[in-house]
Specification:
Elements (H helix, E strand, L loop, with lengths): L3 E2 L3 H10 L3 E7 L2 E6 L4 H10 L5 E9 L8 E9 L4 E9 L15 H12 L34 H8 L6
Parallel strand pairs: 3-6
Antiparallel strand pairs: 1-2, 2-3, 4-5, 5-6
Length: 169
């Protein structure tokens, strides 16, 4: 991904407020994103909501990089400002097993979005009020959007027990 440095009044204000807890300000095809330390995510998202007008949490998602040393996951928060008609993404890199703090304390809509990230990637959000599967059955094993989760390894036991068929894989 060829990204370019991003600088404007917002990046200057965020850098002043968060210092070295913000690692990079980048843009890719006019999409702005802030790379932050994982422990800064909640405070940064709160700042963006109340001080910069990014008042709508559009999505929370993740990307799995199984070959990347240390931080195998990117957790990405997509925020929108109605006032600015602008989006910004906040990206944090985390290790497998690290539990980022929930942002439900800032945006109630994070509840279901974080549940989806948990369900698909296995990322557990600390202090989440109701962290449980939302798309897959409760007794499903594994996390389908991890790159090391082969479709051939899908939960054949669950398919046989609940659908009464062989997997077909």
């Amino acid at each position: 991904m060829e990204s370019l440095p991003w600088q404007d009044d917002l990046t200057a204000a965020v850098k002043q407020q968060f210092g070295d807890r913000v690692l990079e300000f980048l843009t890719y095809r006019d999409q702005k994103f802030i790379v932050a330390a994982p422990e800064a995510a909640v405070a940064l998202i709160e700042y963006l909501k109340f001080e910069a007008g990014f008042d709508y949490l559009v999505d929370v998602t993740a990307v799995h990089w199984p070959k990347r040393e240390g931080a195998q996951f990117d957790v990405i928060y997509i925020l929108y400002s109605f006032e600015r008609n602008d989006r910004v993404r906040v990206k944090v890199k985390i290790a497998d097993g690290y539990k980022p703090e929930t942002v439900t304390t800032v945006h109630l809509t994070a509840n279901w979005l974080e549940r989806e990230v948990f369900d698909m990637f296995g990322i557990q959000f600390a202090s989440h009020p109701d962290l449980r599967r939302i798309l897959m059955p409760e007794d499903w094993s594994g996390y389908p959007l991890r790159k090391d989760y082969s479709i051939i390894q899908m939960d054949q036991r669950w398919v046989k027990e609940n659908l009464g068929i062989e997997s077909g894989q």
